[in-house]
């Protein structure tokens, strides 16, 4: 493993009216959708989309998720979402930052933690399966 | 088939802030969720939940959906949703009516059409599989 | 009005796991979200986002929506969504087509109908307010 | 304030296919919707729904949310969601537990933190506005 390990992916997402609620701002739970979009882009960098994941014999359920809300966002606002791989040897921890694309103002931050579960045994794996380690370390 | 065929299910659902959008009312696409809740209750009446459906070797994708919007609904409003089986011999057509539980005022109406697709052959079936016909006709 | 009137907008959207359901495909109601993203892009072409809309004194609730499902789509599939303005003088009718970006295969089609409602009188307007007519005809 | 302060609300919610994702289980972000349904029931106990909240001159944006995932849930599974008021004098902290209604098995736990923001000044209030304190302490 490289010492200065760091993998991240950045995407842009423009919010829609269906992302907002009657308070006039993006509903707080929807940021987990935006996190997911950036996480999917990050896994794509490792050539590990859902298709590859399932073929590998492991799924990666989220076991812990947290979102901190710094400023609201509105409909038709373009957000930049950065997902950064923080840990991967025993579990996958990804941190997220969402900023307003126009002003750079921070909107939310957060993280998710995922663990490997074998699709054949339904058992949790306490080390990251080797196929994913190899894809990440490439 | 009985001439005076009619099957329906009625459920209540209280809207949440996450069902609304920045216009202050329930987002138009969410009525398809409320329709689905009533449709699921209707299929439960035939002892045909998702588990039974998948075990039967058929899935029932929606091929056509329509919603007519008569009046808006707000957060924390209790709605009554009625799903009525209109056709079932060649395809499943279900109609829906949503009213405000308190006043009886009509909010939306609509329908969905589903066809049987075999999970083994991935082919569409132009008659309703016999196991479902039997459950419906009981 | 120009005789050969035609306004349309095309966007791309890559589906996420949260757009899918346990049948393994994009949940049928979510196509109304993709339609909305293309509709928002279309209104942006007229310089008429939500902010401008509300400032104009009118909102545009959807009164009728329909979706026809031709083929399923999966997670992490890139879709091209085209929104085309079909009518605008008395009501706004927009039609939609969604195709798979890679293969061009048609996934869904549909339409939405919106009417103008004055935010001060809460009355429906049977002609499109002049400010929007002017923006569309530019 | 009573020393043995404790307020909680319990609701039941039956999951739908639209709550699940292609992994076959309820999508992780949707638990924030179920938390919200229980939180709304809790605030209703204080006679403080959204309507009363907005009339009070304060809104209560969520500034921190966390969900821990213990076991998956499926479509058409009935869940019991308990929301418990943990703190209210300076900020509103609510904890949540979701269990399977049938077996009592724990599915998720989590919390949300909300702060009062004046709708006129847009300023955050570091003490809970008196109208809400009174409703809670009744």
Output the strand order for the largest sheet of chain A: 1-4-5-6-3
Biggest interface between protein chains, with counts per chain? A-D, 21 and 21 residues
The major pleated sheet of chain A works out as:
5 strands, antiparallel
Strand content of chain A: 35-45%
Termini of chain A, distance in Å?
Answer: 9 Å
Structural class of chain A: alpha+beta
Number of strands of chain A: 8
Q: How many domain units of chain A?
A: 1
- List segments of chain A where confidence is low: pLDDT < 50 over at least 5 consecutive residues: none
What average pLDDT do the residues of chain A reach?
93
The CATH superfamily of chain A bears the name Hotdog Thioesterase
Q: C-alpha Rg of chain A, in Å?
A: 16 Å
How would you describe the oligomerization state of the chains in this entry? homotetramer
What is the second-level CATH architecture of chain A?
Roll
The topology string of helices and strands of chain A comes to: EHHEEEEEEEH
What does this entry look like structurally?
Four copies of one chain form a homotetramer. Chain A has 138 residues and is α+β, with helices and mostly antiparallel strands. Chain A has one domain: Hotdog Thioesterase (Thiol Ester Dehydrase, Chain A, Roll). Helices cover 21% and strands 37% of the residues of chain A. Chain A contains three helices and eight strands; from the N terminus they run βααβββββββα. Chain A has helices at 31-45, 50-55, 130-137; strands at 7-14, 58-59, 62-69, 78-87, 92-100, 106-114, 116-118, 124-125. Chain A has a five-stranded antiparallel β-sheet with strand order 1-4-5-6-3, with helices on one face. In chain A, strands 2-7-8 form a three-stranded antiparallel β-sheet. The longest helix of chain A is centred in the first third of the chain and has 15 residues, at 31-45. Chain A is elongated. The termini of chain A are close together. Chains A and D meet through α1 and β3 of A and α1 and β3 of D.
């Amino acid at each position: 493993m490289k010492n200065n390990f760091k993998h991240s992916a950045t995407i842009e997402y423009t919010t829609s009216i269906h992302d907002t609620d009657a308070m006039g701002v993006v509903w707080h739970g929807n940021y987990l959708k935006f996190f997911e979009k950036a996480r999917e882009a990050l896994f794509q960098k490792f050539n590990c989309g859902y298709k590859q994941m399932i073929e590998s014999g492991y799924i990666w359920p989220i076991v812990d998720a947290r979102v901190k809300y710094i400023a609201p966002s509105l409909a038709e606002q373009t957000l930049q979402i950065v997902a950064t791989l923080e840990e991967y040897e025993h579990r996958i921890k990804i941190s997220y930052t969402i900023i307003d694309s126009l002003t750079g103002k921070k909107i939310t931050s957060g993280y998710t933690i995922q663990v490997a579960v074998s699709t054949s045994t339904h058992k949790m794996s306490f080390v990251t399966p080797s196929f994913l380690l190899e894809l990440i370390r490439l």
